[in-house]
Amino acid sequence: MKVMGDQAGSVIQVAQSSDHPNLNVTLVGTGNTLVIEEGCVVFGAIHLANGASVHIGKQVKCSGALALMCHEGSSVEIGSNCLFSQNVQFRPSDAHSVFDLQTNKRINPPKPIKVGSGVWIGQEVLFLKGAEVADGCVVGARSMINKVFKEGSCIIAGSPAKIIRRQIKWAP
Description:
172 residues, mainly beta, 7-stranded parallel beta sheet, UDP N-Acetylglucosamine Acyltransferase, domain 1
């Protein structure tokens, strides 16, 4: 794992039993947190800026690079025993503010992304701010997850994603 940026004021906890070949972590600002639990195989890029956090649960396996881009105190939480295909992206913030012209109120604040335990994520899936996938789901390749899916054991697919099958289970 290669860490770039100022680690002062940030927390990085990576279990020794995890494998992180070619994982590039970039820290910007302070108060960032990265936790990778036991038995994980994770590589790709994690960018944390200004109080952002990423928590990856136990036994998460990636067959291709992940891209987690967390800014403005946003967060990504991934449960245990998940399987990721290649080129999966997480974007819990837009990284640039957009304001209403009349009220000057920000209209695109960051929102956390959560992936439950036992989730299988297909190739080139994009998770946007506020997305959530419940335990035991399968997410189809090239899907865009932009809302909360509270129902577990489903197949979710499409752009934007929707539930296409219920009451499933999968085996690695």
